[in-house]
Amino acid sequence: MTIPSLALGSGTKTVQYTAPQDPLQPSTLLFYLNGRKALLTQPPPDLTLLQYIRSIGLTGSKLGCGEGGCGACTVLVSSYDLATQAIRHIPVNACLSPLASVQGKHVITIEALGTSANPHPVQERIAQMHGSQCGFCTPGIVMSMYALLRTNPRPTEEEIEEAFDGNLCRCTGYRPILDAAKTFSVEKTGVCCKSGKGADNGGKGCCMDEGSRAQDPHMEEAKYQRGGGGCCKDTSASGGAPELIPSKVQKIDSSFQYQPYDPSRELIFPPALILLAKEGGHGCTWYHPHSLLDAMRLRKLHPTARIIAGNTEVGVEMRAKRSREEISIYLSADAIPGLGKIDVDESQGLVSFGGNLTLDRFSHHLFTTVVNWPAYEREHYMVLHEALKYFAGRQIRSVATLAGNLATASPISDLSPVWMALDAHVELGWLDITIHKKWVPIRDFFLGYRKTLLNPAQELILSFRIRQKSRKGEYVRTYKVSRRKDDDIALVNAAVSLKMDEKTGTISSSYVAYGGMAPVPLKAEAMSDVCVGRTVDEVSKELAIFLDDFSGINLGTPGGMPSYRLVLAVSLYHRLLAQCLSSHLSYFPEHSSVRIPHDLTQGLEARVSRGAQSYDSSGAEKEDAHGEAVAHLAAMKQTCGEAEYLDDQTPPIE
Ligand SMILES: Cc1cc2nc3c(=O)[nH]c(=O)nc-3n(C[C@H](O)[C@H](O)[C@H](O)COP(=O)(O)OP(=O)(O)OC[C@H]3O[C@@H](n4cnc5c(N)ncnc54)[C@H](O)[C@@H]3O)c2cc1C
Ligand code: FES
Ligand code: FES
């Protein structure tokens, strides 16, 4: 295999793996693993991060499902973001992360946190507070909590629960895990502890306010980067460790005194990697373009190469098919800022989102941007945010991208119906002599099962575009039905957009899109049309069942269960319509005397969970453990990744 002559820009990693007899220099991969430099020569391009770390004896990270669903393999990946000059920490599923994707990054595994003799506070508290039983999920649980603390050392209880949405535990029932994790929690008052003023009350804003945190949810707080700025929670003038508000969570065993958590004692991000990020650095094991032009050139030169972004689809597919890609072109917004850029065209009222923006960054942007907008302008942003709320787990959302989701063309994508309801457009780009770009309505994008207008041999997805703000009388809603609320794919999902005339209360346009009802995300024509031209009052009175759109659904429909899906589809429509009407009637009560029942308009929100364990200790003998909450002997080894399972003794070779 020879390296093609290709005039690519500086920084682009163009070195391919070469056969041993190839006279060209072999490629190298440079990253840091648990604080130590790792330089690998010609690692196989299809090796996952998990296979690699386990093969070198770091067996604390477990192989559970192998497809991003259980979180047992969670590790922390830190990188330096050139644009913001800040360090990002993301929890990732090592089972899906290509080893090559950690070029220039710092990987932290469970082994780096602490040992059973000297555990990290997360490891200690989860062990001592009975958060592990068989212990197989435990390293992943510890790493998810650790990842949260690295970006947010003062999380709320809600933030802690969210941090575990990509982890499954079969034994504990989660309550003891959450109890232990919530010992790190604080209550956020929104009032600056120094000035006594919240940001909306004339204060400058406090480190505890959401809005004053970095725009990226994974950015390390400036305070915790060495030499960073101060925090009003500091107890010392020199910016020492913040005093944590003691937990309100009851410990079962009150004799257990846990060590305090001091973020300044965490492993630092290797300064050498900051230099590497700034200067370009070593060749990578696969194509890693650092400019859009280079990405397009590579696309043209290698029409059969697979584009890889978050690898959350491709990784699962490769594993299922036991296949590998000969040539991969890795697209990341870190290397090609244009693919993660958010542009607002004020004159047209449009906003575009870079194609390979990760879902977590996208969601965070949506949520933080609308804070000062009037409620009626937020519909477009909030419906996208809603679609991402129950989209996979955090480890997946940290790396998965918008383009990857659309290109996959899954009939149950959570985003596709929303894009369709919003009449979003996708920008495709390709290269012949010059660069060409075109905008395609996503409503026309899907041609058949996993077939789209994208020509994968030539084109790249560059960005997505929507009208930024909704107007009065416009409503867009989405809902997903799955077997469980968090971290599950949809059975059926839907999005509805409605436009109502402010004066007459007449519905002037409507679009209803479903996922899970056909091989492609589908516009429900009859449902879309039925309301148009009618008044809010009429429609409110006739929330009826419309089944025509799905007469074609049968046992052969992907996923089966046609009658169940039909029922879900109809009820979803009613629910979303009711939400839109109810919102409208709150602005224009004169449009109908019908009052939509509250139950129909409320979403199912997961509340912060509470649990307690009680047992009779009256008959306990002093000399034995009856009636006492004693952590089991293996707990600390499990939280520190030292417990050995059969799987760990002979690392699997696939
Ligand atoms: C555990 C788990 C849970 C999941 N849960 C959900 C869920 O709840 N809802 C849901 O909708 N999906 C879910 N998914 C699916 C998946 O996460 C998404 O589809 C994701 O957005 C894919 O993005 P990616 O960047 O990882 O794509 P990749 O796997 O990297 O790529 C997917 C496809 O997109 C192509 N591609 C990527 N970028 C470009 C580009 N710029 N131009 C052209 N082609 C491109 C690739 O070539 C490939 O064919 C889940 C997946 C897993 C593993
Ligand atoms: S092993 Fe289950 S998510 Fe990686
Ligand atoms: S799976 Fe969580 S302790 Fe067994």
Mean pLDDT: 82
State the strand order across the main sheet: 2-1-5-3-4
N→C terminal distance: 25 Å
Helical proportion, percent range: 10-25%
| CATH evolutionary superfamily of the largest domain | [2Fe-2S]-binding domain
Q: Examine the coordinates and then state which fold CATH places here, giving the name of the CATH topology of the largest domain.
A: DNA polymerase, domain 1
- Parts with pLDDT < 50 across at least 5 consecutive residues: 1-7, 13-26, 190-215, 222-247, 281-285
User: Main sheet?
Assistant: 5 strands, mixed
Strand content: 15-25%
Which of globular, elongated, flat, extended, rod-shaped describes the shape? Answer: globular
Report what the structure shows:
- With 654 residues, the protein is of the alpha+beta class.
- The protein has three domains: 273 residues, DNA polymerase, domain 1 (Orthogonal Bundle), CATH 1.10.150.120; 184 residues, 2-Layer Sandwich (Uridine Diphospho-n-acetylenolpyruvylglucosamine Reductase, domain 3); 117 residues, 2-Layer Sandwich (Enolase-like, domain 1), CATH 3.30.390.50.
- The longest helix has 26 residues.
- It is globular.
- The N terminus is likely disordered.
- Bound molecules: flavin-adenine dinucleotide and FE2/S2 (inorganic) cluster (FES) (2 copies).
- One FE2/S2 (inorganic) cluster binds next to loops.
- The site of flavin-adenine dinucleotide (FAD) has 32 residues, from strand 6, helix 8, helix 12 and strand 14.
- Pfam families: CO_deh_flav_C, FAD_binding_5, Fer2, Fer2_2.
- Keywords: 2Fe-2S, FAD, Flavoprotein, Iron, Iron-sulfur, Metal-binding, Oxidoreductase.
- GO terms for molecular function: 2 iron, 2 sulfur cluster binding; FAD binding; iron ion binding; oxidoreductase activity.
- InterPro entries: 2Fe-2S-bd, 2Fe-2S-bd_dom_sf, 2Fe-2S_ferredoxin-like_sf, 2Fe-2S_ferredoxin-type, 2Fe2S_fd_BS, Ald_Oxase/xanthine_DH-like, Beta-grasp_dom_sf, CO_DH_flav_C.
